[in-house]
Specification:
The structure is a single chain. 27% of the residues lie in helices and 17% in strands. By secondary structure, the protein is an alpha/beta fold. It has one domain: Rossmann fold, CATH 3.40.50.1360. The N and C termini lie far apart (37 Å).
Amino acid sequence: MATQLAAGARWKRTSCSKRAAGAIPAASSARTAATVNSDQHILADAQAAGAALADFVANRLKAADPVRGFHMALAGGSTPLPFFEALSQMRDLPWQQLWIYWSDERCVPPNDPQSNYGLARKHLISQIHVPKNQVERLRGEVDPEAEAARYSQLLRQRLPDLSLDLVLLGLGDDGHTASLFPGDEDALTSPEPVVAVMHPVSGQLRLSMTPALINRAQAVAFLVTGANKAAILKQVLHGPGAYPAQLIQPAELHYFVDQAASL
């Protein structure tokens, strides 16, 4: 069952208190993806987009420094399913070099149907030979603030430069990415790697990597599929508007998109 507030209740956060939904605050530097170094990969359908992203990840994993390893954050939700399935079918990849993290998680137990970790475990992790101690899930079943602090510290210890090799993201129809929602000023501008957040409509508590961390990654790849994402993708890429997804400005940015979302 998802963690959420009872009707009329309030949740006090020390680092990322709830804000009303709205535009990104003026103090934040939101730019369209077209103004940063981005590449768009347009594929026939969702399956092809997922397969292309799997090829992209596989090539990066093969080229990774075997001493450092390859540190990748997975996206949540159902959009990555074709990617999970395509990557899980690949053979002869150096899985022992792969370290897996999550860009966000719902505050639910790992066996809950809404768990991002649970979905990835079923469709990807259980099918490949990545060492168990290199799968670092966000613990949605514990106190969100404490877990955000624990995961932030884990990342600092594992990656002193806080630079993941690759972060995978999705795009919501409101312009959110990971669990970074429009109007959550504290999360959008936090210097912390991971914060506790609240869904602006449902009140569900979540954990999310922040733009401050995501933008330090060597590369970021969005997977965007479906006709229902076409309008918001166009705005994120070309404007107008200021959406959380536009705050993602790493050195290398990729969009893997199907034809339906690109129209």
